Amino acid sequence: xxxxxxxxxxxxxxxxxxxxxxxxxxxxxxxxxxxxxxxxxxxxxxxxxxxxxxxxxxxxxxxxxxxxxxxxxxxxxxxxxxxxxxxxxxxxxxxxxxxxxxxxxxxxxxxxxxxxxxxxxxxxxxxxxxxxxxxxxxxxxxxxxxxxxxxxxxxxxxxxxxxxxxxxxxxxxxxxxxxxxxxxxxxxxxxxxxxxxxxxxxxxxxxxxxxxxxxxxxxxxxxxxxxxxxxxxxxxxxxxxxxxxxxxxxxxxxxxxxxxxxxxxxxxxxxxxxxxxxxxxxxxxxxxxxxxxxxxxxxxxxxxxxxxxx
Length: 310
Prior knowledge:
Layout: H1 29-39, H2 41-59, H3 94-130, H4 132-147, H5 150-158, H6 166-175, H7 179-192, H8 196-203, H9 208-216, H10 221-244, H11 255-264, H12 275-303, H13 305-308
Helix pairs in contact: 1-2, 1-12, 2-3, 2-12, 3-4, 3-6, 3-7, 3-10, 4-7, 8-9, 10-11, 10-12, 11-12
């Protein structure tokens, strides 16, 4: 990952002139994204994978009834036209389970990444720019969050909080995961706040809010975006792992529940007939991770002002 280096501005006009921030470009961010993805086949592949899984999580469950059909006489059927990924131990279509189970996993992971990026960015920007007592207090809170053992905490919370919806899961994962990002953002802000274009912006009378959001934040955009994507994959592993281990109640269908059933009820480790049922959620997790990894490099070039000029 390339280090974040802020560029010196070409010019900074007065607040009344309403000139754009020095890191802005004439081309829109959407135009830049399109050009980068068209010239990076791997980035485009990662983007398409994420779009496919995102659409599947949003609209896929609408294609199936709330209670999927079962056929015990067709358990562990081999992949076919009617069942592209085969069936499970109850004769339920495995593809239907993958599609309907994607919403909980991916939505909770997305929300966890969003909360992690939001809490970490706001805390780091505020602490790094204003310093003083507020900086000390915020960093003490961040250090406390870093010391929280995430997995034992989730196990304890599962006894009183059932995590039946992805919002609650995403919120908890986000709350316990923003500490490291806050510290990293603060370190970058401490460097940026001493640059000449920030000093010039202060001298011209720009407000602290304007300087943070229009001058400093754009220089950190690629870093925050990459940390967001990495937080999404980490949250996906955490939620799937908790259901796989049986820590959380199986009130919702998701990929972690499928993995648990593959080992506990399907005998996937002993019979080859159950392998499609075991491998299907694993492949789904792998493809989402692959999409994130391939898309990361493109995100850096899209949002990093220094790389856009190449």
